[in-house]
What does this fold into?
Amino acid sequence: MLLAAGVGSRLEPLTTQVPKPLVPVANVPVMEHILRLLKAHGINEVYANLHYLPHKITEYFGDGARLGMKLTCRYEEQLSGDAGGVRSMKEHLLDDTFIVVMGDLLTDADLTSIIKEHKDKKALASIALKRVDDVTRFGIVVQDEQGFITGFQEKPKVEDALSDLASTGIYILEPEVFSHIPESGEFGFGRQLFPQLVAKGLPVLGIEMAKGTYWSDVGAIPQYLESNFDALDGVVKLQNCISEDQSQNGKSPAKAAGGRVVGAGTTISPSAEIDAILMTGKNCQIGANAKLSGHVVLGDNCVVEEGASLTNCLVWANSKIGKGSQLQNTVVAGNTVVEPNSNHDRVALVPQTVEPKKLASNGVK
It folds into this structure.
């Protein structure tokens, strides 16, 4: 079960264009990275709840056949919490152990190992955990010696934290858990279901991800930028991150020759200064005396005009970076024209006219 109904308010204004599950990481939607990870661990049947711009998700993924999976989506007219979203797919999840994954995660977690530990210890519910440096940003878990959870702390102060293990938004559940979820109304995992199960003395297990596992929430722009750069550096092991039409045999740009992965049909002026770990989509143009440094991702059909400068930037598909403009630490949404000789630092740029937020189902059942 993939939770894909969030509006993505922390990613605004980028999510005025696309729903959060479709924001690209290394030119691939974050939801596709999750689906490919699930498939790599033998999970081929996936259900997703949708709410904001649902038609864009179904138009992109269809029924999942392109990925060799079966994907079933359901529109939630009114959001009912993350556990409520899983409840909406209850009839599909009653037969066996199932996994729940938040739709804005980027990770290379060993899901097979996590599921095995859940089953070996006969837990009713398990939460995948990751050690974090800043406990004030996360829900923190307290465990006994066997790993079963005894309590929770929601974004505690450093001096009050009883552990540094945070919930990652990956849950392994048994169908019996539905008997503890109300039939209707808003209901959440972190604040309601899991604390209630622990209070009842039921076996809720915390499973720490293996050392070296990558995990990031891309739900806010600073983390979104950082996750893209981690993908370029190969810090996160992504399934088929590099599209087949790109060179370097699927290597991340940092590990490819010259630190570049360049899409088919892309042209780079001989006078352009490329001192960046670079990924481009198809049919991009990088003009004379353009300067690229740090980490740079260009989506399909992007144009970087003469003398433009990009440092640590993401540019979504079909955008133009105007002549002589300077961008640092910036995300440029799709179909955006950046004015010539403009200067932008630590911002998200979107087209002047963007598609309004749509909360109608647009035919998604």
